[in-house]
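Thread amino acids onto this structure.
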């Protein structure tokens, strides 16, 4: 099995998997809609960097899926807690930012890095998709080269999708300027995702 093929699979599934609204793509849209292209670009780069180790961890944990189903349940709970907390935080009334908060918001890379680390959704996602691809006989990660080609594809795929979001968000910026919805939609989406994750966890 060739390196480009596994890279392509990682790229495609990462690109598609990054489309649904989530912590990271909703945040990057919000930044881009404020015409902060440089900050949004650094944010996207940080997300892509964190995607690499998270995808690698997901592949490693994939071997435990059938024998240790509690792992998936625990990750589901982690996702629920993180999403709900971030949603509530985003919906709290805006306050005058402190020096640290202002510096944090002005640094797209650090902001993207922290939010990516606190958003472990990529791990169960890559656990499930890798297991599915292997079960269908579409992929083999039997060597270190194949494994890292696949994981690199996931990182580049996430970066490509986020870059497209930045590009299209800029086109929408004149219509979304000063809109209250731009400020509250990310919080509502995050809260809804968190509640949905809790429902799935307690009904699984």
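Threaded sequence (204 positions):
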């Amino acid at each position: 099995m060739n390196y480009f093929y596994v890279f392509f699979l990682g790229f495609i599934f990462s690109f598609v998997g990054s489309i649904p609204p989530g912590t990271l793509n909703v945040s990057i849209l919000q930044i881009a809609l404020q015409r902060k292209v440089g900050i949004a670009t650094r944010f996207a780069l940080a997300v892509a960097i964190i995607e690499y180790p998270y995808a690698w961890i997901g592949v490693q944990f994939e071997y435990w899926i059938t024998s240790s189903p509690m792992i998936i349940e625990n990750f589901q709970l982690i996702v629920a807690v993180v999403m709900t907390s971030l949603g509530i935080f985003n919906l709290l009334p805006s306050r005058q930012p402190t020096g640290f908060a202002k510096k944090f918001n002005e640094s797209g890379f650090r902001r993207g890095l922290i939010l990516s680390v606190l958003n472990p959704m990529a791990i169960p996602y890559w656990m499930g998709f890798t297991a599915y691809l292997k079960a269908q006989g579409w992929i083999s990660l039997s060597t270190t080269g194949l494994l890292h080609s696949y994981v690199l594809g996931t990182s580049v795929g996430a970066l490509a999708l986020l870059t497209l979001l930045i590009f299209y968000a800029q086109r929408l910026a004149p219509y979304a300027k000063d809109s209250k919805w731009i400020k509250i939609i990310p919080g509502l989406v995050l809260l809804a995702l968190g509640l949905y994750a809790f429902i799935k966890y307690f009904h699984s």
